[in-house]
Amino acid sequence: MKARIPMHREFMIDFPEGSDEKRNEEAWDKLNQILEDYKKEGKSVYTPTFIEDCEDKVKALQQEYGFTYTIEMVK
Predict the structure, then answer these.
(1) 3-state secondary structure the chain
(2) What is the average pLDDT across 23-48?
(3) CA 61 remoteness from chain centre
(4) pLDDT of residue 45
(5) What b/e sequence results for 44-58 when a residue is b if at least 16 CB atoms lie within 10 Å of its CB, and e otherwise?
(6) What is the pTM of this model?
(7) CA torsion, points 53, 57, 62, 65, in degrees to nearest 10?
């Protein structure tokens, strides 16, 4: 059986080296909550507007936790 996963864009999160592991985990929990809330709307990372729909929330967390992110096309 084969499954074809569509190309889509994802946030690639990077925490600075030496950053506080507990705060990083807290940030991951909040990032995952953004995704869970998005799924509750019946959407997924494969939704064409995923990045646009979530980027403001990710940027707010970026300001709070100091991580960087890029947006990459993945298969």
Answers:
(1) CCCCCCCEEEEEEECCCCCCHHHHHHHHHHHHHHHHHHHHCCCCCCCCCHHHHHHHHHHHHHHHHCCEEEEEEEC
(2) 95
(3) 10
(4) 87
(5) ebebeebeeebeeeb
(6) 0.87
(7) -150
Compute CA distances 59 → 33, 47, 75, whole Å: 14, 19, 24
Distance, CA of 49 to CA of 36 (rounded, Å): 16
- Give the contacts of 12 (CB within 8 A, at least 6 positions apart): 69, 70, 71, 72
Residue 48 and residue 30: Cα distance in Å, rounded? 22
Residue with tokens 């690639």: 12
